[in-house]
């Protein structure tokens, strides 16, 4: 792993645990095991380090999701997506979604972390359209939007309230409803 990758990985872990604004450059350099001078040589500003951390998270998250989806039969992938979110929320180091957190801390739509968060969510939604089409759902675009909202709601609910059996059961029931076709009717 290169020095830049090591710094970005350390930064991602700190930002994810503590928040973007709450994490200082001194702490970032200490955790990465480099001097502040070295950190600034690779990332001339904290904002560039935030960007590198989010880009790293985007690649890692989507690759991990793809691995889970690929292991499931196509018709079961909508449920697999929700099970992926449920399993992730139960991990000891779960602190919600790095992109939701970034969009909250960098609220202006023009701020680069917010732009990266939007791009990540758009890429995720595009992947879910593929998932719903491959699963044979009648209206894959509508179904993907619904599945996306179920997943995003599950992430936030687990971040705020902790993982609760009733929340997981509700998300699973909503996906079952969606896959059965009941949830893919266009609103009147």
TrEMBL record:
Residues 24-43 bind DNA. It holds the Pfam family TetR_N. The keyword Transcription applies. Transmembrane segments: none annotated. Signal peptide: none annotated. InterPro entries: HTH_TetR (IPR001647). Keywords: DNA-binding, Transcription, Transcription regulation. Residues 1-61 form the HTH tetR-type domain. This is TetR/AcrR family transcriptional regulator. It comes from Geopseudomonas aromaticivorans. The lineage of its organism: Bacteria, Pseudomonadati, Pseudomonadota, Gammaproteobacteria, Pseudomonadales.
């Amino acid at each position: 792993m290169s020095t830049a990758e090591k710094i970005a990985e350390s930064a991602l872990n700190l930002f994810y645990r503590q928040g973007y604004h709450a994490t200082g450059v001194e702490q970032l350099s200490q955790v990465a095991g480099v001097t502040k001078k070295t950190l600034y040589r690779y990332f001339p500003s904290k904002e560039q380090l935030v960007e590198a951390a989010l880009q790293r998270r985007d690649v890692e998250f989507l690759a991990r999701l793809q691995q889970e989806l690929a292991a499931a039969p196509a018709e079961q992938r909508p449920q697999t997506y929700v099970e992926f979110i449920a399993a992730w929320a139960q991990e000891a180091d779960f602190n919600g979604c790095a992109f939701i957190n970034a969009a909250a801390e960098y609220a202006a739509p023009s701020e680069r972390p917010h732009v990266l968060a939007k791009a990540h969510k758009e890429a995720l939604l595009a992947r879910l359209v593929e998932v719903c089409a491959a699963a044979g759902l009648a209206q894959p675009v509508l179904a993907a939007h619904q599945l996306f909202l179920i997943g995003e709601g599950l992430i936030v609910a687990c971040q705020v309230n902790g993982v609760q059996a009733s929340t997981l059961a509700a998300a699973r029931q909503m996906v079952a409803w969606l896959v059965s076709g009941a949830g893919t009717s266009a609103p009147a």
